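Researcher: For the annotation table, I need structure tokens for Phosphopantetheine adenylyltransferase. Please keep the output clean. Sequence:
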Amino acid sequence: MKTAVYPGSFDPITNGHLDIIIRSAKIFDEVIVAVLVNPDKKGLFDIEERVELIKKVTNGIHNVKVESFSGLLVDFMKTKDANIIIKGIRTVSDFEYEFQMSIMNKKLDPTIETVAMMTNPKYSFVSSSSVKQVAIFGGCIKGLVPENIENNIILRVNEQKR
Ligand code: PNS
């Protein structure tokens, strides 16, 4: 069984992320979306909430699982018996960053392979941080994030303004 891991912060998950998950789930037997626990960085959503939001938007894709991890990605992957990392690439700067990270991960564990998937051009400008910024200043996030979590984002942004 080929298990692939799609790691990230997902604060929040965007349509770009979801597109990568859907396409990966067609290629691999199982895709584990792995949400990084970063205690130093307070996000819009806490880890449990991010996991729940991703579960909500991937509900119905039978071979997608959502989990959180802390520490090194390669260590988490060992516990899952997985050696494929999926990354989405939007820009040349994404490529440079991911290229370095893939070499570091390979140094840490030579059995690891990173598979880079090119973004759907519809979402090449979408990032979690830009979605947050647009939402904070009252802009429209329709089409940038899955429809069924739009309100969760708007509500949370408004809560944090108070
Ligand atoms: O969505 P992001 O924030 O770009 O995702 C970054 C992530 C989670 C993929 C990356 O920070 C990561 O893998 N962190 C775990 C720590 C690790 O394994 N570092 C070694 C590779 S440099």
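Researcher: And a one-line annotation?
Model: The helical segments are 15-27, 47-58, 73-80, 92-108, 128-136, 150-161.
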